[in-house]
Amino acid sequence: MVRGRLFGRQTANPPPSRRPHQSDQSTLGQRASRTLPPDPEAKLGIYEVIRTGKPQLIARITDQVLSQLASNDDHLAYLRELGMHSAMVLPLTARGRTLGAITLITAESGRTYDQHDLIFSQEVAGRLALALDNARLFDASRRAVKLREKTLALVSHDLRSPLSVIGLSADMLRRRLNNESLANKQLQNISCAVSRMDRLISDLLDMASIQTGSLRIEWEERELAPFLEEMLELHRDLAAKNQIELHDQVSLPHAARACADYDRLGQALTNLLGNAIKFTPAGGKVELYACEKQGSARIEIHDTGPASATKTYVMSSNRIAPAKSIMNAGPG
Fold first, then answer.
1. Is residue 21 part of a domain?
2. DSSP per-residue codes, 236-277
3. What region holds the Histidine kinase domain (predicted)?
4. Which of 90, 110, 111, 289 is most buried (CB neighbours < 10 A)?
C-alpha cells in the first residue's frame, strides 16, 4: 500500500478449465486488480487486514462471503468464476508497521485452511515482512548516504572559498615583509594553518571512503624533527595566551627520516597538543617527547593538567598507529 492506494503484486495460477480467456496473457489476479478492485471500506478482505494488522481466516468461502467481498455485480460474478474454496489474508507487519498483506486461496483442491495453517502462515508472513522492511531500510540508507555526500561536497566548496582568500592574503603580505620580522613569522603560521584547514575540509569528503575501507593514505618520507618543531610553533601562541609552558624533548638521530602520512599525523598531534593546552591550568606545562625505539619513532604528549592523559603514538617505517592511552589521576 502506497499513500492509501493498494498495488497488487500477486500471481494467480488457475487450472486450464477455469481460464475464461485463453488469449489473455495477463493473469486473473492482475486483470481483476485493474478492472474489479476490492472495496476499500469492506470489513472482510485485504483492506481490513491492512487497517487492523490482524489476519483473517475464511475456512469456507460461501456465496454469502463472496457477496461481502464483491464491490458490484460484475465483481461478484468474477469471484464466483474463480471457484475459491478457502482463504487466508495475512498482514505483512515489521517493526510495528504494516507494509501490506498476502492472500492465500485454495480452489479445486478443496483443501480447507484451519488454525494450524494460519499460525504457520503468519510466521512465514512475518519473515517476509521483515525482509521487505530490511530492503526498504537499505534503500533509504543508500539515499541518505548520497544526500550526505552531496551536502559535504557543497559545504567543502563553500568553506574553501573564504579559506582561499585568507591564504592568498597571507602570502601577499609575507612577500612585502622582511623575512626576519615577527609579522612574517605570524603570517607563516597563518599559511600553515590554512593548509591544514584545507586538508581537514578534504577529509569531510573522505568519510564515505572510511566507511567502505578505502581511505587514501598519502605516504611521504621526510625528516621528522623539523616537522615536530613546526607542530610546536603552531601552538606556541596559544600556549602563551593560556600561560602554559610548551617544551620539546626530541632525542632522534641526526636527520632521522620516517615514512608516514604527515597530514594525518599533523591532525593527530594538533588535536593532542590543543587539548593538552586547553585543559592544563595556567602555569602548567605541556611537553612533546620523541625518541627512537627499535627502529621506530615514538612520539608522546604529556601535560600537567588534572586527570591528564598521556597519548603515545608509534611511527614506524611503513605505518603510524596509536599505541596506547593511559589515563592518570594526577600529573602526566
1. yes
2. HHHHHHTT-EEEEEEE--TT-EEEE-HHHHHHHHHHHHHHHH
3. 154-332
4. 90
